[in-house]
Design goal:
Layout lengths: L2 E7 L3 H19 L7 E7 L21 E8 L4 H19 L6 E8 L12 H4 L14
Parallel strand pairs: 1-2, 3-4
Antiparallel strand pairs: 1-3
Length: 141
C-alpha cells in the first residue's frame, strides 16, 4: 500500500491529476499494486505563496517544471523493481502530463507492516498478516 505525495510547480488540477495517474499506473505495472490501492496527496505550487527549490545535483538540468514524488511503502522491493518504477513514472509523467523526465524527482521511503493504519485506529496489516504480503508485479523484473 503505497502512500504518494506529489508536489509540482505551476500545476493546476488537470496536471496534478495526470501526474497522480502516471504514478499510480507505474506502481500497478511495475510493482503489482492493486487498482483500488490509491492514496495520494497532490499539491501544486504557484511560486509566490509556495514554491519548490531544485538544483543540478547529479546532472539533470531541472527547471520550473520540477515534480517531486515521495512514495512511502512497505519494504521488500528489489533495486531492479525500484529502478523499473522510477523509469516508468518518468515515461508516464511525460506522456500524461507533459513533464520532462529530467524534472521527475522520486524518493521511496520504506517501512514495516506495523507502520500502517488504514483507518479506524487499527493496524490492519498486524491484525491480518496475510494481507501484508506484497503483491507480485504483473510484468515486473
Amino acid at each position: 500500500m503505497p502512500f504518494v505525495r506529489i508536489d509540482a510547480m505551476g500545476a493546476g488540477r488537470e496536471r496534478l491529476d495526470a501526474l497522480g495517474r502516471a504514478v499510480h499506473d507505474a506502481l500497478q505495472e511495475t510493482l503489482g499494486i492493486p487498482p483500488d490501492d490509491r492514496f495520494q496527496v497532490l499539491v501544486g505550487h504557484d511560486g509566490t505563496g509556495s514554491t519548490l527549490r531544485y538544483g543540478t545535483y547529479f546532472g539533470p538540468d531541472r527547471d520550473d517544471g520540477i515534480v517531486y514524488i515521495a512514495i512511502t511503502m512497505r519494504a521488500g522491493r528489489t533495486p531492479g523493481q525500484k529502478q523499473a518504477l522510477y523509469r516508468r513514472i518518468a515515461e508516464l509523467a511525460q506522456a500524461y502530463a507533459g513533464t520532462a523526465p529530467r524534472n521527475v524527482f522520486v524518493t521511496v521511503t520504506e517501512n514495516a507492516a506495523a507502520d500502517w493504519s488504514l483507518g479506524d485506529g487499527l493496524a490492519q496489516y498486524v491484525l491480518h498478516p496475510e494481507a501484508a504480503r506484497l503483491p507480485a508485479a504483473a510484468d515486473g523484473p
